[in-house]
Amino acid sequence: MISKSSFIRGLQCLKSLYLHKKRPFLRDPLSPETRAKFKRGHEMGDMARDLFPGGVLIASSNPRAYKKNLEEVNRHIQLQTPVMYEVPFMHDDLMAIMDIVTCIEGKWSAYEVKSSLSISETYLWDITFQAFVIQSMGLKDVDFNIIHINSEYVLEDDFDIHSFYKIVNVNDEIESRMGLLQPLLEKMRNVEKITSSPDIPIGKQCFYPYECDFKGHCWKHVQSPSVFHIPGFSEDLKYQLLDERKTSLALALPFIHDVKQKNIAMSLLHGDVIVQKNEISEYLNLHEKQILFLKIWGHRPAKPLNQKSTPFQFSPVMLSMCAFNNGIIENEKYIFFDLKDNYWEKIRDFSLTFRGYDKTHRIVCFACSSVLEQLENALQRIFGIERYSQDAIDLQYVFKKAWYCAPDIDFHSDFQAVASHFSDHDSIRLKQLFKLIENAEDNVYVFSQSPAGMEKLQSASSEWMKLIAEIWMKLSVNRG
Ligand code: SF4
Question: Which of 21, 202, 207, 239 to mutate to test the pocket of ligand 1 (most atoms within 8 A of CB)?
Fold first, then answer.
């Protein structure tokens, strides 16, 4: 049986399809990000039903019930039921479930919902496969559409679902792909028949369009550290070295010419800490100013929650800050932004206050540059306030620029890797602290809705402040 998702899998890599069917236990565990993406996809799919209200929900979550569901679908097709949701279609060994199907005055339309801001090539193949199954079942002259989130939507007084979603007719795109479908399906059917894994070498396809969930299995022979750990290393050269089995840093070193990349490579290869004191010193230069640690806790809801916001807009929920004097954390403060009243007005007022702080304080944060920039963009869009480049020190920058390279800080330079490197806590305690902080980051909006949740956020923030203080102090030692 080839379902829509196995078709997309096979399109990316036939070996992935084979492993999915025959060796599913080799799959990597789902990452929290992928799980969150799936959850968001389901929520957006459910919400889009309100574009065509009053429909009949067909699909059962139990795949064994699909056959019974199909009888039901056929009955509804005969009856020309105006709106159906989660509609299964089956033809030979192919199965598809269309999110929404409508019949208005005898004209059939099918809608696939995507929780993204645009239509990708993969989405077009996805709906081409579905169109093939539907047409093969005898339902002809159907209009096929992709529903996705409108990137230009701005929440005004009330949420308007018809402006939030964009409905795009993709009949032409389907037609141009339909002729290519049969040969692809044949290849996938053949893969289902073979008894050993197809001989497909690892390559670019392992990452595009999605990071393959059999990477752990297929890439286990790639020696680490490799050029895949070097940020910005030429994509083409990377895969050329992979073909030549020269990706290990020991062999690839002659191909690394950039100073930043070379520092990272040497640190990984020899397990050394490599520090560029002058650069760090210049960046952390304090000019006798007071230090203020800052963290903005927020989320990016697909459906905007507060007025004047756009889909996926970074929306602050809590701002935490503290002064840092002579190695001591002082005056911890937490400010919650209430979504209901004058949300962006309050953020604007805080932003203006912070601009004033620049004269007397250095604001120190971690991975905050893009968040601050996005907030400035939002304030410019909403109030026409001129953008202001906050003179904040983003400690992540030191690692991204490779001024401080250590083998245990990978090129993502995320907070956990950096804090683990500098903290005096043992690994068990650090694990507990990261869990606390991660939980607060993932649930910041939900937690902000109750006093108990707000307490959790404050305690996570307090631990975060202690960790950034440790990073700051130990990095400062490396100032020339
Ligand atoms: S990791 Fe790469 S080669 Fe292995 S199954 Fe996935 S895409 Fe194919």
Answer: 202
